[in-house]
Amino acid sequence: MKALLWVIAAIAVAVGLAAVAVRSGASYVQIVLPPYRVELSLVLVIALLLTVFALAYLSVNLAGAMLAMPRQVREYRAARRSRKARQALSESMLAFFSGRYARAEKAATNAMKLGEQPGLAVMLAARAAHELRAPERRDSYLANLAEFTVDASQFPGGDLLKVITEAEFLLKERRAVEALAVLQALPQKHTAGLRLELRALQLTKDSEKSLTVIDQLEKRKVYDAAQAGELRRSALTELLKRRAIDIPALDEAWRKVPDTLRRDSRVAGAAAQGYIALKSGGRAAEIIERSLDQSWDSDLVALYADCEDNNAVHQIERAERWLVAHPGDAVLLLTLGRLCAREKLWGKARNYLDASLSVDSTYQAHLASAQLQEQLGDNEAAQKHYRESLSLALLQLQTRRNLV
């Protein structure tokens, strides 16, 4: 286009000069090259010069265009390849998030071959293969990711993405120990890495480290106070259960429980069960009493009767005070019946057990009543309660299986 404009301009100049020459008369140009002499009209000379200039200009531009043609072809092909690659990558992302994993893997593979953000394409292909339950292809993609993480400018964050993705895959397969080993490659724990680490620690039941990670996640506003509190309760409960191997170990674990959680029913229940199993009923009863004084929990009060090496008279007095505030609690009535039976207070034991059954007919209450009737020598009544207890226990077991 520019060349055409230059030619038009040259012709216009030539026409203008010719017009001037015509007006000025018969002008000519004499060229002397001994022994030759050539006379040309001025108009012809100007026309020849402009023609030569135009031809020279066009020749130069044509030569430049011919020399630039290979580069332009390469640029065109690269642009077309890049366009196809971006289209393939977009198609892969759309298919993946639409749940069309086979199509997503194929499109991601094409994008990877075309060189459009190959690191990201590899990760999409690996995730799609994982969803398709093809671990061999998935692991192959992850292994190939190393090719794209050598140059950080080509695929920034590639190492981090690889670690996080590989850890996620391992956790989905419940390979928590291997996931923890992979996460150790992170130079600095970030939020996603910490969340994965917490999941792995929960699977390995490493409660102490879980508590540390929960604190970090709460500081980063991943969990609010209520969510963090629930996670801490679960971790502490698991810690107390695992430490119930001897009294010193359980005592050490209990000392690590914050005061704000020592009266929580779940945490207190786990500690009480541990002390009961270790034949330290007095310690268990003390923990249960403190928790129930703060908040009532029927499941926790059921453990109160299991503290068999404790002072049952004191327990009966304490439970009867609770009964004033909770007169219709079937579990508390059952607990009082068991405590009274332990002290051979047969009449009170039968009254409390009958009251518990009138509120809620459970297999535990029928079992306690059967054992009481055996102590009293009424085998017929004992057998009746045993049958009721067995029937209710089987019904409860069947209900749980149906829910699962």
Fold and architecture overview:
- This protein is mainly α.
- It has helices at 2-23, 42-97, 101-114, 118-131, 135-144, 158-172, 176-183, 191-204, 207-219, 225-242, 247-255, 259-262, 265-277, 281-294, 298-304, 312-325, 330-342, 346-359, 363-376, 379-403; strands at 28-33, 36-41.
- Strands 1-2 form a two-stranded antiparallel sheet.
- The chain is rod-shaped.
- It starts with a helix and ends with a helix.
Record the SSE blueprint.
Elements: H1 2-23, E1 28-33, E2 36-41, H2 42-97, H3 101-114, H4 118-131, H5 135-144, H6 158-172, H7 176-183, H8 191-204, H9 207-219, H10 225-242, H11 247-255, H12 259-262, H13 265-277, H14 281-294, H15 298-304, H16 312-325, H17 330-342, H18 346-359, H19 363-376, H20 379-403
Antiparallel strand pairs: 1-2
Helix pairs in contact: 1-2, 2-3, 2-4, 3-4, 4-5, 4-6, 6-7, 6-8, 7-8, 8-9, 9-10, 10-13, 13-14, 14-15, 15-17, 16-17, 17-18, 17-19, 18-19, 19-20
Order of helices and strands: HEEHHHHHHHHHHHHHHHHHHH
Overall 3D shape: rod-shaped
Q: What's the pLDDT, averaged over the residues?
A: 81
Low-confidence stretches: 150-156
* Number of β-strand runs: 2
Spatial order of the strands in the main sheet? 1-2
| Helix proportion | over 70%
The radius of gyration is 45 Å
Distance between the termini: 78 Å
Question: How large is the count of helical segments?
Answer: 20
Q: Which features characterize this protein?
A:
2 strands, single chain, rod-shaped, mainly alpha, two-stranded antiparallel ribbon, 404 residues
In short:
The protein is an all-alpha fold. The protein has 20 helices and two strands.
